[in-house]
Amino acid sequence: MERELKLELLQDQAEGLIGLPLVSSCCVEPPHEDRLVSTYFDTSDLAFRRMHASLRVRQAGEHYVQTLKTWGTQHGALYEREEFESAVPGNAPDLGALRDKLPEGTALGTLLREGDLAERLKPIFITDVRRTVLLLRLPQGDEVELAVDRGVVRANDATEPIRELEMEIQTGEPAHLSAFALRLLDAVPMRLSRASKGDRGYALVADEANEALRAEPLRLAEAGSAEAVFQCIAESCLAQISGNERGVVNGSNPESVHQMRVGLRRLRSALDIFEPLLACPPALQSDLKWIADELGPARDWEVLANTTLRDAFDGAPEDVGAGAVLAAAKAVAADARQRAAQAVNSDRYTRLILTLSHWLGSADWRHGLDEAQRAALTGPARDFALATLRKRQRRLLKRGRGMAKLDEQRRHRARIAAKKLRYATEFFESLFAANKVRRYRRQLSRLQDDLGWRNDMAVAEGLLLRLATERQQLAIGCGYARGYIARAVSVDRQPLRCLWKQFKAARLPA
C-alpha cells in the first residue's frame, strides 16, 4: 500500500525547497537525481482507466519497471492506493508478472487474463521528469522519501508541465507528514495536488468529467470505542471533501460544490456531536466555517439558475422575460463558482486540509484530558450513539412543535435540528438493527428533504429580490418567479404537516 502526500509547486522553486535547512537537517543521505520516462499503456477504449487503474513502464537509466496502480482513496492531502511493481526487460508491459500479483476474482485480475489484452495495449501518453530524491528522518523518527519532480506529461501534441513534491512515508505515522508539509509551506508556496501524473495524462487524451463524490456508507465496529468511531466518521467526511476539490476547481458540475459542502456539513456536525468528548481547536473550526461560507453562494445561485427558475418559468408567457432572468442568474452563478474555486485553490485552504489531517491523525484532542474524559473517549460507541440520537430527537420534537404553522425563523431552527439528527443517524446506523434504522431514517429523510427544499425556496426568494433591486429591467421576471415560489410553498403546507406527523410516530432504532 502506497501512502504519500502530494503538493504542487506554484513556482519553479525546486532547488530552494531542497536547500531548505528544514530539509537538509533531516537528510539521511545526499540527494540524488534521476531522469524518469514513464510510458502509460491502455486499450483504445481505456479499459484500465474505466477500472480506476493505470499501467505504466518507467525507464530510469538502463532499468525498466512496470507499475499497476489503483486510484485508491484520498484523505486530505494523503493518498492511499495499491500498487504492484515488477522489473521488465524493456519498454513494454509483462502481463504475466502482473497476473501473478492480482487474484482472478478481482476486476483488474479478470482484465489481465483476457486473452487478447496484450495485443490491444498501446502507449497512450508519456511523462518525462527529472526527479530529485532525498531520504529523510523526521524528528519523530519517521522515515520519508521526499521527491521533487520537474518535467512534462505529453500526449501526441498536447503537453502539461509537472512541478510536484511527493512525500511517501516508509515507516512511521502519516500525520507527521502533514505537520512537516505545513512547515515547508511557510517557506515555499504550494497547493494541494489533486491529480496524479496518470490523471493529467488521461485528461489530455480523453474528455473526462469530474464526477462528484458522495459519502460512502459507514461500517462501524459495534465493539469500538467512541473515539475510534469519531476517527472513522471524520475520515469519511474528509474523503468526501477532498474527493470533490478537483470538480470544484476544474469542473462545472454543480453537484461537485454541493457534495463538497455536504462533506463539510457532515464534518462540522460530527465535531458538534463529539464536542462533549473531544475539542476541535477554534482556529480549525473557524477555517472550516470559512470554506463552507465560500462555497455557499455558488451552491445557492446554481440551484436558482439550474433548478428553481427552470421550474418557475416552465410555460411562462413570453413577456415575462424569463430568458433574461435565467441568463443573469447563470452569470452570477458562474462568478460565484469562480470565487469558490479560488478559495479551494488558496494557501488558506491548503493549510486547513494539512492541519486537519494532522489533527485527526495525531489525535491531538487527547492532550490535557483528565481521567474521566479519557474514560468517556474509550467508552462503548453504541451507548454514546444512542444517547446522542435521543438528545437530538428531543431537540427536533421541541423545535418542530406545530411545524406547519411555524414562522420562517423557527422553521429554520427546526430544519437545522432535523439535519443534525439525520447526519447523526447516518453516522451511527451500522451500530443498530438494519430494519429499524431503515424505517426511522426513511421518515426523517422525507421530513428533512422537505425542510431543505423550503430553505432553498427561501434562499431563492432572497436572491431574486437582490437581482430585481440591482437590475430593474428584470423586476417583472423576478416577480413572476417569486410568485411561483410563494404558491409552491403554500401548497406544501399540508404535505409538511403529514410528514411531521409521520416522523413523530417513528421510533428510534434503539
From TrEMBL:
<dbReference type="GO" id="GO:0046872">
    <property type="term" value="F:metal ion binding"/>
</dbReference>
<feature type="domain" description="CHAD">
    <location>
        <begin position="223"/>
        <end position="510"/>
    </location>
</feature>
<feature type="domain" description="CYTH">
    <location>
        <begin position="1"/>
        <end position="208"/>
    </location>
</feature>
<dbReference type="Pfam" id="PF01928">
    <property type="entry name" value="CYTH"/>
</dbReference>
<dbReference type="Pfam" id="PF05235">
    <property type="entry name" value="CHAD"/>
</dbReference>
<dbReference type="InterPro" id="IPR039013">
    <property type="entry name" value="YgiF"/>
</dbReference>
<protein>
    <submittedName>
        <fullName>CYTH and CHAD domain-containing protein</fullName>
    </submittedName>
</protein>
<dbReference type="InterPro" id="IPR038186">
    <property type="entry name" value="CHAD_dom_sf"/>
</dbReference>
<dbReference type="GO" id="GO:0050355">
    <property type="term" value="F:inorganic triphosphate phosphatase activity"/>
</dbReference>
<dbReference type="InterPro" id="IPR007899">
    <property type="entry name" value="CHAD_dom"/>
</dbReference>
<dbReference type="InterPro" id="IPR033469">
    <property type="entry name" value="CYTH-like_dom_sf"/>
</dbReference>
<dbReference type="InterPro" id="IPR023577">
    <property type="entry name" value="CYTH_domain"/>
</dbReference>
